[in-house]
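User: Can you recover a sequence for this backbone? Please restate the input before giving your answer.

Assistant: Of course. Working from this structure:
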C-alpha cells in the first residue's frame, strides 16, 4: 500500500512538473484538428479501393467509443465530408490531409517523451516519416476492420439460407462493432507507448499506464455522456454554434490527460523499481 501510494504521488508530482495540463490541452486540440484530415485521407484511400461504404463504416468505428452526445454532431459533419466528391487518392487535398493527420501522432510523441523524462535526439524528418507511416498503417488497418464489419451481415445472410437459426446473430453485430472499437483503442494505446517515445519500454512496463488509460477513458466517456444528457444546453447557451466543437474538445482534452498520466504512471513505476529498497 505504501509503495502504491508513493507511485501515485510521484506520478502526480511529475505530471504537474511536466506541465501535464498544458500538454493534454495541446494533444486534445491537435487530435480534434487532425480528425478531419485523417478521415479525409481514409475516404480517399477507400475510394482508391472502390468502396465509399468502407469510409463511412471506418468513421463509425472511430466514434464508437465516444459518448453519443459528443459523437453525433461531429459524425454528422464527418458524413458531409465523406460524401463530398474526390478525384482519388493522390489529389492535393488528400496528400495534405495525410500530412496534417500526422500532427496528432507528433503531439502524442511530445506527451510521452515528457512523461517518460526523455530527450528526443532523432532528426525531425525521421520522426515525421514515422508519423506518416503510422497514419498510413492505421488507415489501412481501420479500413480492414471496417471491411470485416461490413462483410459480417453479408456472411450471416448467406449462412442463414442454410442455417435459419443463425439469423438471430444479427443482434450481436452492434456488440461486435463496440468490441472492434475497444480492440482498436487498446492496440493504439499499446503501439503509442511502445513506438513513439525516444526509448521503447517493454510491454510489461507500459501495461499499467495503458490499462489505466483504457479503463478510465471508457468510464469517463460514460460519465461525460451522462453529464451532457443533463447539462448540454449550458454548452449551447455559452458557445452557440461552436458548442459541438467545444464539447468534442473538452472530451478529447480529458482523454489526452488520462493518456499523459498513463505515461507518468509507467515512469513512476519504473523509478520505484530502481529506487533502493528499505
Amino acid at each position: 500500500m505504501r509503495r502504491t501510494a508513493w507511485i501515485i504521488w510521484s506520478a502526480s508530482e511529475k505530471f504537474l512538473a511536466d506541465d501535464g495540463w498544458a500538454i493534454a490541452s495541446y494533444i486534445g486540440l491537435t487530435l480534434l484538428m487532425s480528425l478531419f484530415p485523417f478521415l479525409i485521407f481514409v475516404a480517399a484511400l477507400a475510394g482508391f479501393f472502390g468502396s465509399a461504404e468502407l469510409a463511412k463504416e471506418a468513421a463509425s468505428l472511430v466514434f464508437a467509443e465516444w459518448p453519443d452526445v459528443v459523437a453525433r454532431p461531429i459524425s454528422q459533419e464527418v458524413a458531409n465530408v465523406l460524401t463530398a466528391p474526390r478525384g482519388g487518392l493522390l489529389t492535393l487535398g488528400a496528400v495534405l490531409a495525410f500530412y496534417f493527420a500526422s500532427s496528432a501522432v507528433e503531439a502524442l510523441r511530445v506527451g510521452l517523451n515528457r512523461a517518460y523524462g526523455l530527450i528526443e535526439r532523432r532528426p525531425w524528418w525521421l520522426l515525421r516519416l514515422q508519423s506518416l507511416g503510422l497514419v498510413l498503417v492505421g488507415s489501412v488497418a481501420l479500413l480492414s476492420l471496417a471491411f470485416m464489419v461490413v462483410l459480417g451481415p453479408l456472411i450471416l445472410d448467406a449462412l442463414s439460407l442454410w442455417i435459419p437459426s443463425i439469423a438471430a446473430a444479427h443482434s450481436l453485430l452492434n456488440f461486435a462493432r463496440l468490441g472492434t472499437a475497444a480492440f482498436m483503442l487498446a492496440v493504439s494505446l499499446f503501439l503509442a507507448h511502445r513506438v513513439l517515445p525516444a526509448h521503447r519500454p517493454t510491454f510489461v512496463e507500459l501495461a499499467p499506464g495503458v490499462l489505466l488509460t483504457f479503463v478510465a477513458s471508457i468510464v469517463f466517456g460514460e460519465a461525460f455522456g451522462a453529464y451532457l444528457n443533463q447539462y448540454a444546453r449550458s454548452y449551447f447557451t455559452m458557445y452557440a454554434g461552436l458548442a459541438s466543437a467545444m464539447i468534442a474538445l473538452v472530451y478529447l482534452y480529458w482523454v489526452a490527460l488520462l493518456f499523459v498520466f498513463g505515461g507518468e504512471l509507467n515512469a513512476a513505476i519504473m523509478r520505484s523499481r530502481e529506487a533502493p529498497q528499505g
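That completes the design. Residues 2-274 form one domain.
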